[in-house]
Design a protein that fits this description.
By secondary structure, the protein is α/β, with parallel strands linked by helices. The chain has helices spanning about 15-25, 40-50, 65-75, 90, 95-100, 120-125, 155-165, 175-185, 225-230, 240-250, 255-275, 295-305, 330-345, and strands at about 55-60, 80-85, 105-110, 135-140, 170-175, 200-205, 215, 280, 290-295, 310, 320-325. It binds pyridoxal-5'-phosphate (PLP).
């Protein structure tokens, strides 16, 4: 069966109407290139308003470059970055953070449900303090995490305080930051710079933008020469207005949080439906737009045969990842659940 929507990834979805309209508006006439245009200036200003601070903002093409270049701006080549063992920067960026930071090493931390256990930071920092080992310099947190959980404000503060105590700067991979904000219902400022985050990679594409993320430096000193890093890393868009203008649509009237909240609600609906099916086990608390579940083995192939795309075992072994988007409908969710219920017997 040909389906129009899937649960494989939140970037399977298209562009949301608000981002699309803002892009169309930016398409009238000529504009100054390389980010010196009015749309880019206005989008950066709007981000400063949302975060209630005079942060420095850059628009790049994707999450890998946002993470890699922001980490590179925190590190020297002899430094290391601490992150969760499931972090995208470790598992899914083809070594780009190490590459762009000229060899900085990624060190892995454990913790349940995709969240770093703060107790793991000190042993990792103190494991070696001699000159033969890379010097820890940054903590990278993913919010929402790779398995759909969300750090509470208290959890964030515990991590950033520990990081500070050990001289680490804090970078946040916020590919799904909107989902985390919608889930927690707290102000973006509370969940970032007021909680000790130095730089945020603010995700756009999973929220409904065509492509692109905003790199938001709360400590402007860390952003020094970041424009050069972007250019050298192939991330300075000549027609920058098409990366930046969609943010104006998203950030106007709370569209970003509406879409993220909707995706989260669809994930909650999906989890509730799955929970009622024998043989299905939800693997992690469902706190954003993703559901991780162990499905009956026989079900997977049959769901695929019925046209549903989703991945199993990619992020975590034996777990299927089901992601909801801004355009996932209750009918999509119910149809998936009904198919699984029928297959599982
Ligand atoms: C946690 C996380 N960070 C970052 C990204 C962004 O990666 P990309 O370079 O594909 O935009 C993703 C996308 O899957 C992600 O899940």
């Amino acid at each position: 069966m040909k389906r129009t929507r899937h649960f494989a990834s939140d970037n399977y979805s298209g562009i949301c109407p608000e981002a699309w309209a803002a892009m169309a508006e930016a398409n009238a006439g000529h504009e100054v290139s390389y980010g010196d245009d009015l749309f880019t200036q206005r989008a950066a200003d709007r981000i400063r308003e949302i975060f209630e601070t005079d942060c420095e903002v850059f628009f790049v093409f994707n999450g890998t470059s946002a993470n890699s270049l922001s980490l590179a701006s925190l590190c020297q080549s002899y430094n290391s970055v601490l992150c969760h063992e499931l972090a995208h920067v470790e598992t899914s960026e083809c070594g780009a953070p190490e590459f762009f930071a000229n060899g900085s090493k990624i060190l892995l931390l454990g913790g349940a449900n995709g969240k770093i256990d703060p107790a793991e930071i000190e042993p990792a920092v103190k494991k070696r303090t001699d000159i033969h080992y890379p010097k820890p310099r940054a903590l990278s947190l993913t919010q929402a995490t790779e398995v759909g959980t969300v750090y509470s404000l208290a959890e964030l503060q515990a991590l950033t305080e520990t990081a500070r105590r050990h001289g680490l700067r804090v970078q946040m991979d916020g590919a799904r930051f909107a989902n985390a904000v919608a889930s927690l219902g707290a102000a973006p400022a509370e969940l970032t710079w007021r909680a000790g985050v130095d730089v945020l990679c603010f995700g756009g594409s999973k929220n409904g933008i065509a492509l692109g993320e905003a790199v938001v430096f709360f400590d402007r000193e860390l952003a020094r020469d970041f424009d050069y890093r972007c250019k050298q890393g192939g991330q300075l868009a000549s027609k920058m207005r098409f990366l930046s203008a969609p943010w104006l649509g998203m950030l106007k009237d709370g569209a970003w949080l509406r879409h993220a909240g909707h995706a989260n609600a669809m994930a909650a609906r999906l989890a509730a439906g799955l929970q009622s099916i024998a043989g299905v086990k939800i693997s992690h608390p469902v706190q954003s737009n993703g559901v991780f579940a162990q499905l009956p083995k026989v079900a997977e192939a049959q769901l695929h045969a019925r046209g549903w795309h989703f991945y199993t075992g990619v992020i975590t072994p034996d777990e299927s990842r089901l992601m909801c988007s801004w355009d996932t409908t209750p009918e999509d969710v119910d149809a998936f659940v009904a198919d699984l219920r029928e297959i599982a017997g």
